[in-house]
Amino acid sequence: MILKEYKDAASFLNDYERVMLQREAVSQNILYHAYHRRALRTQDKEYFGAVLEEKDTILLFCIDSNQCLLIYTIQCEGMLEASSYLADNLGNKNVLVQSINAKEEICHRFIDQYRKHIPCTSSPRLEMDIMELRNVNEVTPIEGNQRLALNIEIKILTDWMIRYLIETFANETDYEEILSKATDFVSREKVYLFENKEHVVVSMAIVARELSRGSAIMYVFTPEKHRGKGYAAANVYYLCKKLMAEGNEFCTLFVERKNPLDARVYEKIGFHVLEDSCEYALFHKRAE
């Protein structure tokens, strides 16, 4: 096998942008990061690369500013061997990886091989399924109304975003950072709220990523007292109809694998699961 490294995001995208766009919903993490890094045009150290078997590319990877290793699989055949090869290369170079985001099988294989070079333990942080919608099914959502969020609602939206992150990631978050994100999303008209028939705001969804050919919906959140009534499904349904009418080829979202009911709800709208996406935190042992 061969490991091909790139000095910057632009060179990486020149070779692999077209390939990643073929399955943009699945490749979105690494593709979105590469676009972001290319736009910044900074001299910060970047690490993008590919693992090849002769002339066939098996997987693509990058390491982001938080030392998270993002891996996108192009070919399933040989992917485990390729992830072991990548682990050997990074381990031999003493590259510290703080987390890994990839298919579950690849996460396990990489970590098992990587810890042979750099002692560490691991813990699952996220276990998600990537879902995609290309046609909206006609359904009858619960009665209510969707609208854009207002500036006066930024503080409650920040609270909801933090509660979403705590429930999903099970860790603490920085309030000021999330407040800044909420303010930005609202100013760009990316936050969609659903009001029930009593005109109470009961659910939130955010178009957090505008991809090349589609849109990624994130921060789908309903306060606990309003759950189980179809509010989130209605909000996502109306949002998908709007996005598709605007010319998006697809909508995509992530759902927790531990809650298959969510996936079934979104399947009724028109979503289907493409692939799993997991994230594991790595904890490095200090040298004695």
Automatic annotation (TrEMBL):
One of its GO terms (molecular function) is acyltransferase activity, transferring groups other than amino-acyl groups. It comes from Variimorphobacter saccharofermentans. InterPro entries: Acyl_CoA_acyltransferase, GCN5-like_dom, GNAT_dom. It comes from the Bacteria. The lineage of its organism: Bacteria, Bacillati, Bacillota, Clostridia, Lachnospirales. This is N-acetyltransferase domain-containing protein. Residues 131-288 form the N-acetyltransferase domain. It holds the Pfam family FR47.
